[in-house]
Amino acid sequence: MNATITNFIASLPQLISGYSPITNQSVWLFDSFSIAEQSQIVTSLCNPSTLPGNDKFDLFWYLSETFVLDDTIESQIEKCIAGYGRNSLNSYFQYRPNPMTYLYSNPFTPGARRTLSQVSSSEFIQTLDYVCGRPFTWQYTKNQTLEVAQYLQSGILQSLSDGIDCKNIVNFVASPLAPSSGTWFSLQGVKKQMALIYNICGDVTQSTQSLTFTFYKLNQTLSLDPVLQNSMSNCLYMRDGGIEQVYSDFAGWPTDDLVLTWYASRSLWTQLDIIDFLISGWVLEFGIRFTVADMTKVVGVYINFTDYLGLPTSLASDELQKYLYWYDSTDRLSMDVTGGMNVLWFNSQNTSMQIRAIQTLCNDASFSPHSGFNLVTLIWQFIRDSSVRHEIQNCPKVTRDNRMDFYIEFYVYLGLCFIDLGMLAAFVYLVWKYDNTIESKRVLSPFNIGFAVVVLSTLGLNIVYMCYWQLYLSLRILDDSTIMEAGFYYVLSYFFPAVWKFSYLYVSYIRSKTLLKRVWPRWADLIGILCYISVIPFILPIAFSIPEIIGISGFTPTRTWAVQTASEIVLLILDIILLTAFVKYVTRINADAGDSKSDHFEAIAKYGTAASGACLLLCVVALMRPFIETYLPTRYEILTGSVTATIFLMHVVSGTLLLMKWRLVSRKEWSSRGTGTTERRTREVSTGYNSAKNSRKSAQPESTNGIQSQSGMMSSKVAANNTLVG
């Protein structure tokens, strides 16, 4: 094997993988080899160590369609493919691409000329017009385009070649404002003119701005037909639209004139992508219930429109037929195709066939519970018959989920409920023991009411999440009633945090109001006002979530998250203010050491600092949720973990406030015991002194006023001295 053949074999895989649109020497080099040399190349490519079996399919398809191979070479390729398995040869022929695929990939090849010689006269003209009208597809220059067109027409009947006006087409596309181009363009029919406009519109090397100027000058010079003017406007409006963007905007009317203009001006490969998007069911993601018949009709309109313009349609028709073959031959949902194809097929069946398809899926081992659930979730929104929904609900494979993380979440919230009940019991005990006394009738004090609401709101939130996870553990596919139940939980998931936030700020402010006046005398009242009016941003997420679940236009999860984020920012700012005040006071404790109230405020400041610090961390975690939703939408474990962490920090804050309550009332009891002992000893001393004095008065004459005054002074001294001792 000579070096030239060896080098060609080494470069061939790279040549095929890119299939360069510009004909290079490798193409013509293979064509120049003798049959014996081509046989050596096929033998080398057939070697198992050269390439995997599937890659060999691509290479041999390429060789067969790019070159005109001798029958012995074709037979050698078939024997090579057959050696890889019993069904390999059938697969090779069954999945062989349409020869026109290779022609439009690189029209300057022997195989392309052979393919073109075998098509109908109308398709021949369409293909030549396309090659001449869109040279930018292959990055051809004007001269290269004319050379390719001449090569493809060699050996063709003269009468057929006379119908090709490649030179004028190329001149117009390259320089549409040239006088000669304008003159020729004005002599064409409206249909031909539209096709040329779409050709120019499809030139991605031209900016929209330059194209706008070109169309303006053409219309100004030639006074174009209103139909052409409308086509130009549609082209400029739609030319930058991507597939998903266009069908997001036009999902309800996919055959609108704007969409037709957009489709006709796309390259052949983009047109095939559009057909795939429609007929494989991806368009269903925009929420409209289409059937196979609907999509076939839409694609048919596209093909007829391009055919009317004289643009190629064979690849589009072939692509449609491949899909229709599967839709017509299947009687069940399949793991071998996309979810969109399954949904589109399912939408096209009658009720009895849909029920049978669900039963088959439920018993089909090829569908795992996870894949079955994902597929049924796609189907569910388009089901119209309640009996079909009932059949899905009766399939445990897709409606039950034994995922451990679901159970973990459920039991985490169950555990937090017990913590809430424990905090509530401890709080009731403290109130009963220390606030429900003869000296202190403060059971319904503002702090007690606020803290009770704090604990009850976290308890309510935990119950909501328990019910939510229990709902999805028992029934993952929600019917109308359970959708309402889930929506109710959704609203409550915003209600209880709003109540907790306001109650926390209320309790923090009530307990630290005097401390705030010591730290910021001028701003303490303003801080209180801000804490009270914070209820407004806190209730906004609730106000947005209700119309969202009802389905009112304009209310979306994104907007609800936005106002929820705003409420978290408000809580964060106010919490930072309180935290700053507590920290400032703690740093000044030594200066207040002689103050009889310093211990009281020291406890408030230290526990307040801890609670505010935990709340600060809570806000940071809560503010991460929009970023998780945006940048990690499929990482559900991260999202649920952040929600759980937020609720756990709410309990840390509540527990810290409870410890503050315990510390304050226990110190109050200690102080009251000390005061009671002092008063009792004072009364005992005073009683003893008065009794002695009365005894002396009965035995002695009355003293003078001066002596009485002195005795009173002494009595005061004795009492005072005993008080200090006590």
Automatic annotation (TrEMBL):
It comes from Rhizoclosmatium globosum. Residues 673-715 are annotated as: Disordered. Residues 685-715 have a biased composition (Polar residues). The chain crosses the membrane at residues 410-432, 444-468, 488-507, 527-546, 566-586, 607-628, 640-660. Keywords: Membrane, Transmembrane, Transmembrane helix. This is Uncharacterized protein.
